[in-house]
Sequence to fold (422 residues):
Amino acid sequence: MADRIICLTITGLLAAAVAVEPVWGSGYRIPEQSINSVGMAGGYIASASGPDASYNNPANMSWNKDAWQIETSISYINLKGTDYTDYLTPVFNGSSASENYVLPLLHLVSEDISNFRFGFSLTYPYGLSKRWDEPFPTATAREFDLKVYEGNPSVSYRFNDHLSAAVGVRLLYAEGKVQSSAVNPPISGIAPLSLLARDMEGDATEWGYNLALSYRPLKSWNISATYRSQVDLDVEGDAALIARHPLAGLVAWYDGDAGVEVVTPAVLTISTAYTLKQATVTLTWDRTYWSEYDQLDFDYEQSFTGNPYFRNFDSPVSKNWEDTDAFRIGFSYANTERLTTMMGIAFDENPVPESTLGFELPDSDAVIYSIGFRYKTSDNIEIGLAYLYDDKEERKVENSLISGEFDGAGAHIVNAGLLYTF
Fold:
């Protein structure tokens, strides 16, 4: 047990960055960003229509009705707390805090202009947070918070009634915060400190792109592919590092610039949708290239490699995440001319290998369930409501830092919004 405490404090205190508890996608990716997408568990790519096609599949903007369309919605997100049970001692047990967020979303698509359509979306594709209060988890993850905002203008071109392509620009803005602290941490060759802590905040703005292609062999059958580029967020800001000794008081500190790179991985999606009378079924596969997240490395104004207190803050930490696959099935049914109901199910892999899993992101495979509806109150106004539940599997972990299991993780999403055609 003593070896685990030393390893956790010396290495694990510094292992986490601005990676966070996932909302309902693998890692810290958030795929569902509209009423329809939430209602169909993200299985809404080839069947994307209306204003949210601008984000989910901009090539499908070509098949929209010839009018301007806008969708505004709000997602309420409840992240369940995660329970940790240690195999060796209940002293190390803990539970993360439950989190609640409200996120406004916006999607807009233009009318047809010489076979071109223009779209814009405001979304939140990555993020949220993780907080622990118990001493053992707190050493690596007292508080982690990452918010990523994306503005995504796009343009599509309809070659004919069967083929459409689109390209978009991704503007990502990120805000990150990380806090960790260890009480009485053992430091090799030094008497135990009373406190070793880090507090960092920063932000970043970066660009990327997205591509989409839609082919309709028949009016009732759509085959689509989309690709969202990887964007490396160079988060820069301020950091405070503190080492306090029980007798000597403050023995080492740093207050200055700091930075860390956060990977938002590329995503490739292949999807097909078929409509038979009132029913539409969409089958979707997406691959998230998390393997680009191979290590975590903080940068400071000065080097700490020779500092006995802070040297581990300055050492790269291996992550070695793996690419993941998700399989999604979306279903919609036009019950009447005004009412459409939706449902979906998805199976989502997690990217975190057992060897590098920690308290900052105890991710696991998930099954996702969703339902929803849209209702036309008039010819140009439609309201919608959707609910999604992300059910995370329990995760048993045996590595150099952790010997135990995580259970109870998951998320509830409620999205409500309005579509307007003009």
